[in-house]
Amino acid sequence: MYSLLLAVIYLIFISLGLPDSLLGSGWPSMQVYFGVPSSYAGYVSMSISFMTIISALFSPRMIRSFHTKWIVIVSIFLTITGLAGFSFCTSYKMLFLFVIPYGLGAGAIDASVNHYVAENFSSSVMNFLHCFYGVGAVISPNIMGLALSRARWNEGYRWTAFIQTGILIIVILSLPLWQKNEAASGISGGAVKDSAGIREALKVPGVVLTLIAFFSYCAGEATCFLWTSSYFAGTKNGLSDRMIASFGSLIFGGLMLGRLISGFVSNRLGDRLLIRTGIAVELAGIALVLLPSGHFLPAAIGFIIIGTGMGPVYPAIQHMAPENFGKRFSASVIGLQMASAYVGSTFMPMVFGILQQHIGIGIMPFYLLIFAVLNLGFLEITYRKLPKPGDTVI
Fold first, then answer.
1. I need a surface site. Which of 31, 162, 176, 262 has the fewest CB within 10 A?
2. pLDDT score, position 195
3. Are the C-beta atoms of 19 and 156 separated by less than 8 Å?
4. Which residues, other chains included, contact 346 with Cβ-Cβ below 8 Å and sequence gap of 6+?
5. What's the CATH architecture for 2-385?
6. pLDDT tens per residue across span 254-306
7. For the residues 55-76, what does the mean pLDDT come to?
8. Integer distance in angstroms from the first to the last C-alpha of the chain?
9. How far is it, in rounded angstroms, from Cα 89 to Cα 95?
10. Helix H or strand E encompassing 168
């Protein structure tokens, strides 16, 4: 029962990753279809992330009121609605109607399942969970690439919606597993009645600092999600549309690899060492992208390394929440972290879009460098604010 439930949870995170890389990989073609500037991708990405912020801020209340499985089912249905809606859009403005379910669904899944796993499973499980997010995010740029070579970008969204529908059916069929497994193993998955609220959680030492660190991490990550394909289109010559779209999967492939490796070593190394090692690897990848070369290969390898380094950072910060701030605050802290993450995802890719339009897409590795340093710096400050070993954490 335990293994089957874990497999379903991993599948849920594949569904979470599927929509996230479609816009970045499909945008070079979508931009031409809609007849808008390249920077307009940032407005769509910002709107999706804004809805996700709203969903994440409401997640502590939802976690207090509903079982995780019901939050997941409703959320996947919302993402299906958003994906299907995108596939039928015939104008740029129409996209903004469907960013609402697109974003709301993602935030609720992310916060609720992360809280469920952080409370009940090891750091290793958390890293494997986010590795499966990478599986979904790697699959979808290739779906989009196939759609661009066989049909149009619309089909990329439509085919992804079909896959999400299949995952939703599996999750619905798995409903008896949750109750049986929780009864057998003592796992808590129901409503968390005594969880602290957001205002109370913000007063806990170190919470605000970790929110800034999470903002910085996701600013860099989301910029890679949205602009990697465009970086290759703007800096490398002689690449086909399908090849450019497929480059959108580089960062996700790296994320998946980084989290797969971390899943095997995280229980031994601990979350903090994983984060420090990951950011060091990310910096090495940025240095490789910065190498002056007209060929795409060094930059392609560099983005894979950047993703590999980023891999353990997100799950490790989430997994530390109950230990660092106490179980009573963990649901609200994780909800705040998700909201902070999506603030970074909302605004910073858009800011980069405006900058690259005026300066050039070649500034991307410098932009990533700034946020990698900020991420590491604020986390190190956070550790100094946390209770010392032996102090009471409720």
1. 176
2. 64
3. no
4. 45, 46, 49, 50, 52, 53
5. Up-down Bundle (1.20)
6. 888 888 888 888 778 888 898 999 999 999 999 998 888 778 788 889 999 99
7. 80
8. 31
9. 6
10. helix 153-173
